[in-house]
Amino acid sequence: METPFPPFEPNGPPDDSGRGPRLREIPLRLIIPNLITILAICAGLTGIRLAFENRYELAVGMVLLAAFLDGIDGRVARLMKATSKFGAQMDSLADIVNFGVAPALVVYVFALDQARSIGWIAALIYSIAAGLRLARFNVMAERENKATWQSEYFVGVPAPAGAMLVLLPVYLGFLGLTTDRTFAYFSSAYTVLIAFLLISRLPVWSGKSEGSRLRRDLVLPVMLGVVLYVALLSSFTWEVMVLTAVIYLLTLPFGARKWKRKYGTLTIEEPGVGEDDIGRHI
């Protein structure tokens, strides 16, 4: 028999307003891109540890793996329709570790430490430049009205390419080049150069627009070229990495030349980060 009166509550009826939102199940597809990002961070941090243990080849391999994973997590999220603000923040944090801190520390432990304070300053400059480059990219990506050239050019060398380039002294050391103090000084200067390229306003062709489509007769040759590159990379890893870094550096003037023909300047004059952007995003 039901009682006609409600049970006595000495503190009044329960108030559920302070409990917050109820937990709900999250689709697995939303978790996979974030797991890839976490694995990328783990790979970058493991590369730092291996460098301090003088296991340099594994360290470089982990840093490059971190860069690869960090490069595909966003694409996986878009393909699985699993993009989120949480994932975007995680990806930004992973970028700082994998493209800024990890490469700088690996190259410092391998070569720059023989230049003492100069080598450490060079590593610091590169890490800070990578952070500034990523911050500028995030600010430009959040703009509602984007310039048409943003789908075709990067402003400065992108951070993933910078991580690959700054490790060039390590690749050369693996090929037998003597890593003495002179080598450390040259490597320090080279590291600062890459840092400057990251934060510069140099137009770097991205290949996202017109280069995203191929003529039908070029599909098979391109596929064979990729297979050949991967095969050479697996057999002559450090020779191929040196060649890749040098070719990338040599192509930078051609991107600037193409920009000048189209827009009349050698650098991208349109401001990427204005005072309003800085004040709003600090």
Shape: globular
Strand content: under 5%
Strand order of the largest sheet: 1-2
Distance between the termini: 65 Å
Proportion in helices: 55-70%
Mean pLDDT: 80
What's the SSE pattern? HHHHEHHHEHHH
Number of strands: 2
Give a quick account of the main beta sheet: strands, pairing sense, barrel closure: 2 strands, antiparallel
Low-confidence stretches: 272-282
The whole-angstrom Rg is: 24 Å
Number of helices: 10
The helix/strand class is mainly alpha
Multimeric state = single chain
Task: Summarize, please.
66% of the residues lie in helices and 2% in strands. It contains 10 helices and 2 strands; from the N terminus they run H-H-H-H-E-H-H-H-E-H-H-H. Helix 4 packs parallel to helix 7 and helix 5 (159-166) packs antiparallel against helix 7 (181-199).
Folded structure, characterized:
By secondary structure, the chain is mostly helical. The protein has ten helices and two strands; from the N terminus they run ααααβαααβααα. The chain has helices spanning 28-52, 56-79, 85-110, 117-141, 159-166, 168-174, 181-199, 219-235, 237-263, 275-281, and strands spanning 153-155, 203-205. It has a two-stranded antiparallel sheet. It is globular, with a radius of gyration of 24 Å. Mean pLDDT is 80; it is low at 272-282.
Q: Which structural traits does this protein have?
A:
282 residues; mainly alpha; two-stranded antiparallel ribbon; 10 helices; 66% helix; globular
